[in-house]
Give the backbone structure.
Amino acid sequence: MKIYTKKGDKGSTYLIGRRVEKNHLRVEAYGTVDELNSFIGRAIANLSQKTCSDVIKELTEIQHQLFDLGADLANVTESPSYKTKEIYIDTMEKAIDTYWAEAPEIKTFVLPGGSVGASDLHICRTVARRAERRVFACAKEESIPDEIIKYINRLSDYLFAAARVVNFRDGNTDILYRSNHDVFK
């Protein structure tokens, strides 16, 4: 079987249920989710198995969930069965709370950086925010389940908390943004 079909050579692609142009809002949304998934793979490759095995395990599970979420975004059939579940969000929230308690308290924003793995997670966070904007734009035009919107919103919070805990475990101090007021209370 060949990997190329030549069916998209004129600027269209298949969703699950119909053919659309490649710049369709759903294609933009699941394409950005796919990009995020690739960056998460890079972050995993740069994390220490010794200090971050729990983060690596969670990120690998998130990669699977992002494939499900992308399939959900691509599904435009009349009665779709969605794979993105509320339990995914609950699990992420528990991890966020754990990492937030483990890393030193902050009251201001931090500059993205630190270890290579933490820096990669900050990149993932910003790509997750872009994916969220794409998903939300799509939701303004088409029916998108609330779980998808909540999941992608919570994911950027998870990635921020994970980046901070990775830096902490690797012995790096977050560089606090010079600000004249506290933002985390």
Summary: The two ends are 56 Å apart (CA to CA). Residues 21-76+83-169 form a domain with the Hypothetical Protein Ta1238; Chain: A; fold (CATH 1.20.1200.10). DSSP finds five helices and two strands in the chain.
